[in-house]
Specification:
Largest sheet of chain A: 7 strands, mixed
Radius of gyration of chain A: 35 Å
Largest interface: A-B, 67 and 67 residues
Order of helices and strands of chain A: EEEHHEEEEHHHHHH
Number of helices of chain A: 8
CATH topology of the largest domain in chain A: Beta Polymerase, domain 2
CATH architecture of the largest domain in chain A: 2-Layer Sandwich
Helix content of chain A: 40-55%
Oligomer: homopentamer
Chain lengths: 355, 355, 355, 355, 355
């Protein structure tokens, strides 16, 4: 459940803008990486302290501050003050249960995304909140500090100077980060697709209560996914169509492209939901089918042996005067009758297509 | 049911604006607390009579009148007259079955909220209506007079002068009250999340009719919750985007924040609904599964013993001429045949994976 | 079904504006009551003939013509001609299967409402169409002529001159009539709420096919209610926001109040629908539960006695050489074996938690 | 299925505007009836050839060309050319699987309707496409040429000169035709209502697989109906609110009336759908109920006789030393025990309310 | 599953506009066909190399470049550069998992469609992406290079000069291509309709688990179809209503026609979905019905023979003193009692309508 409701209650009653970290694990330290570049130059450094980031606020070159770890309240506060972030933005960066959203504060845009990854061990989808601050000439990205991210290829592209990224502004960098996050959803989709395939195959072969729990688990994953991806559509749509001066015209075409990808992801999720619902129907009717089959076996057995046992019982009675018992051919005759009854019943079942 | 339909019928036929209290319990007395403050000064007092509140109407400092108990019609009427409240507003304050709403009367805004709390004994969610009147320099809050509220921390913040609250106007106070109400929903969400978790666990371990009633009860709580929370979204959205002069620009950013929280609460409720629906499916198919299992046991037993009993019956017949009965090895032979039949049937069931 | 489809087919092919009465019962006579009032004066009279109503068309005081019975085509036609009603309006007054609607004919508004009442005998909800014509200084209300209406308190208020009604215009009178109709819905809601409560209790205690039919009947009532109430929301919304000069500004606040009530009624219906749907699920799974229980009893009995009967059958065989039969302790030994088998089976079922 | 998908594939690959008739049956000949009228004069004639229609294009009086049979491509083409119909309109007149729609070509409006009739023999609803061309002073109606139509009363009204129709223009004639089509839907609704009633009664009395197929057939009829009626709402709404100069102001009030009727039809269909869905639920749970009942009978019988048979079996064993067999009161005692067991079991079932 | 999720993950991390082919099979070569025509002239040729297409960019006559095969990245890149296609468009042409969409790049429109065909062998619907570039005087169409397309008749019409196509511009050509694609959907619809018919017939005759899997497969086809067709509605609607200068006025009427066809396809899919859902209900209740029938047989057999076997057992007991056994008419009397019991039970079942 902790994936669906975080311990927001810690915060109840505190004044707005109070910085409280509500995530569950506190990694060791906050790591800030600075990438500063323009078409000609490129600098990369680890900021030992948060103060090292301050001089980059007013440079003309594009600066990307990547803050990995949001548990250190002091760091966020100092950075927020230097870059003029609203107290509510600082609060939201720490609250890692935000839904994806876009807020326009005039000087900068505040974007919340969910970076998803597939946990191989538990088979669950893990989510990490990424907050982006897009200013005139800088982008600050806040990650929760979990292992790994999806921004490696972007760093490489900046370092190597390939593609458009070094020739364009901070808005293109922000687009690239969003694009990387959305692209990673396709990997999740493929994993989900495989799970759906496996479940479907198992459903046809040998449905079992485990299949049912598999379907249930898959459904829960999709509820979780939808919650992370649906609002994104609105966010990117607002970025593309919005009138913020921070987004330049050529970048909008690229945003439209990410928008299309988001819709594709959403449609795929909906397709999966439809299919999983269909699988539940199949599971339930395969249960009924099996019950039918078992019942038929029982009915055939009972219908076959009950009359025979009754016949045997009749000639097991101890009446003094039972003329059949004296007949020399009585026993074989009864055996013959029994065979006839059994065979005609089997023929009846055959006609009824019971086996 | 009383949570869903209140005794509105008492009112049928009365002229509009007639004040009738429709709540079910009448607490002892109405308690009015006055908090009057600006950045420098702060006064707090218990108003013995309603008349003690009148002088605060025209002060320049921010005044918060907290009326605890709406059963005393006369108090509401007098206060309403002094502060110029429309008769319909007075009526709505008494009708504690309002849905959350916002009404703009020009000079003041009328806001209805639902304060929710989790009743530990019955496990149900209890609701208390909070009516807010936001004027130029005052906020009047009406509570139903049930035990406890969620405004304690706000009082403390006003007393101590910490945070922004003393430096800002009545609109920020109103925002703070709304924020406190919405924050308290997260506590309810966590309680619900726990209930969902417990039910889900029990569903997997040992589904029983009690589980079903648990699911049903949970569903009813959610229907109740939705009714209280859904309209709030519209209310806060209208406050944020509205053009009422009573809301100042800096407060809108804070309202947008509460708006986000409301959406988060709504999405969580919807997520829970989806999960509870899924649990019902699981419950139903676990019933089918168990039926299947029971039927298999029955079928195995019947299939095993019916032919054997029949065989025993055959050799229990009293025909005079039954040559097998005379054979010295007749009895062991029949026992042998019986064993063979039983074993081959068990092998057949094994192959069919029936056990 | 007659509640859902009225005999419209009588009308197929007739030119539009042809007056045909499609209701099912024709009460004895049409009764027209005239109430004419302003702040100072008040007249009430029974109009013997329709012509008695004509002089009130042009008075400055507010006139309320309450026409009880719509089966007399001639009356409607004459009244319609005198007050300038469009032929289609006259037709719609007679067609008592209209859905609630608002039509603006410039000089007057035509409003259709459904007055609902709970029929104690059949337990069904009965509907009566109320058509309102709101002119500059008059309101004409047409009722189907069934027993009773909900306008008694309004008549009393006009007679006594209490409240705002005598001080205001025809629009406030129309509002009061609509308000009375909507208030009466709350009575229906309470009745429905009780039915839901009773059904729910019975569902938990002893579900039976009657419970199912109760649920079905309740569902049908709700489908019927929805059809009557849903369109009302739009009607009152249009009245409140509309730009008809016939509605004065102060009345709009009152209309907004009725609008809220309508939404409350709609939400309650939806809540009931959700609950009734949930009850159906419970009923179905309680059926499955009971089947499970019955099957378990059957399986326990069969599993217990089949092996024992088989054992008894074995020693009932008549083979000449069955050494066990000769043993002095054979009989008690077999009885002992039988007990052991029975007890170990019961232990097995106990372990499986079958009883 | 042919009602749902017509042989459109004949047309795949042909250039747009190619005239191909896709209906299934070709009636003998095309019959064109000309009605030309104004307030004073009236002419009615059968047009032998299509050329006979041409002179009426430019008369000032209102002309109604009723073309019965759309299989003769040449006729449509010539008429289309003379009256200036767009090739796509000519194509759509022939394609009798159009959904209801309205197209504004400036000089004329093109309206597609579905005329429904109830086929007594098959119990199915039959559909015939009616295309209307509304020009400045003419209306052309194209019917598929099936037997019968619903326009008889309109012809009579034109002939007799009663009502408004002879005093008004072509737009009122078009309205009258649409109104006649929509009015005929009410007849279908009543037939459907009767079917629902009959099915519901049978469901309560004696549900059988035939009931299920009845429900299924009804559902299919409704899917078919919805497809024909839903788009009509939009069509008439667009006619009423549209800004085409071909519709005069007084006619709009009449169109609003048809619009209301359409909504009434749609709501009735939705009500039926809800009820049929509810009937399916009832059917399914009545099946479960019956299964429960059958199972109870089986369980009672088995529980009653299995222990008794076992007892009889015990005393049928052939052990040499079975002291009970020697007792003089052994037999009556066993019979007594058997009775006691049977009676106490029946009492137990009675207590469990199994019968 | 591969139909639902393509291997997008190959692309994760690459800069936007990187050309990567994600389809699954690589046909041998790319084939480019050039058709250049105006009302008077017509040229058709196979372009050996991509460079052969360049001169046609600036001709005044209409040019249709049909590129069959999108796996050769270099060809797309060169063509894209010459005709000024945005890198994202080039990327999307290669990504064959696009959803249908329309993008307006000012100088040209980029349209994505899905060409569907029914694979006779697997019974599945196959999809091929068609990308159209509509410029001032040229149309470029990109197909995935699978066997066959639906554009043959258009080529023939251009060659022969019949119809409007040679007299009109590139926009009409683009319309014709879209129209051909949408027309081909009707063929798919007919195939689906046949499948629905067959399944429905089989459902009534002899429902089996195969029927269930057939329903499931059909449902999956429809989910797939919807994904391909739904967005098309928006695409063509935007084309028709859009303000792009590339679409001339007379073509809009034709686009409205295709728009209607798309809606017809969508409605047919929805109709099928409704019917398939109904079939699932029928299947499930036919299962229950059959279970009921089997259970009845079992119950009849058991109820008939259990009392008889019990009776036989009683008189098979070995008590020394059983007076009935000595009676001369004991045996016939017991046989008579047995017959009476059996006949009265059968009569009871007859009355209960169990067979």
């Amino acid at each position: 459940m902790s994936r669906y409701v975080k311990k927001r209650s810690k915060k109840a009653g505190l004044p707005p803008g109070t910085l409280v970290y509500i995530g569950d694990r506190k990694p060791d330290g906050v790591k800030i990486t600075i990438l500063d570049y323009n078409e000609a130059d490129f600098h990369e450094m680890d900021a030992g302290t948060v103060e090292a980031c301050f001089p980059f606020r007013d440079t003309l070159s594009v600066t990307w501050l990547d803050v990995d770890g949001t548990h250190d309240i002091e760091t966020i506060r100092k950075l927020g003050e230097c870059y003029g972030l609203h107290p509510l933005v600082q609060e939201d960066i720490l609250n890692t249960d935000q839904r994806p959203k876009l807020e326009d504060y005039g000087d900068y845009l505040y974007i919340v995304l969910k970076m998803l990854s597939h946990d191989e061990r538990s088979g669950e989808i893990r989510s990490e909140q990424v907050s982006l601050i897009l200013g005139r000439s800088f982008v600050i990205s806040f990650q929760e500090g979990k292992e790994g991210d999806v921004f490696g290829p972007i760093r490489d592209r900046i370092r190597s100077g390939k593609g458009r990224i070094r020739k364009t502004g901070a808005d293109f960098l922000a687009y690239s980060l969003i694009d990387a996050v959305v692209d990673s959803y396709f990997v999740i989709m493929e994993k989900l697709g495989e799970s759906v395939d496996i479940l479907e195959e198992r459903l046809v072969d040998r449905p079992s209560p485990e299949t049912l729990h598999g379907i249930h688990a898959l459904k829960k994953e999709m509820i979780f996914l939808r919650k992370s991806v649906w609002p994104l559509r609105e966010v990117i749509g607002a970025l593309e169509r919005g009138d913020s001066g921070l987004i330049q015209e050529p970048t909008r075409a690229y945003l439209r492209d990410v928008y299309d990808h988001t819709i594709q992801v959403i449609e795929t999720i909906e397709t999966f939901r439809d299919m999983v619902t269909g699988m539940l129907d199949i599971y339930l009717s395969s249960l009924s089918n099996r019950l039918n089959e078992v019942m038929k076996v029982l009915t055939i057995i009972a219908t076959l042996f009950m009359p025979l046992t009754f016949l045997a019982g009749v000639y097991g009675m101890n009446f003094r005067r039972m003329p059949e018992l004296e007949w020399p051919w009585g026993y074989p005759a009864v055996l013959g009758i029994m065979c006839t009854v059994a065979i005609s019943m089997l023929a009846y079942f055959k006609k009824k297509k019971w086996f």
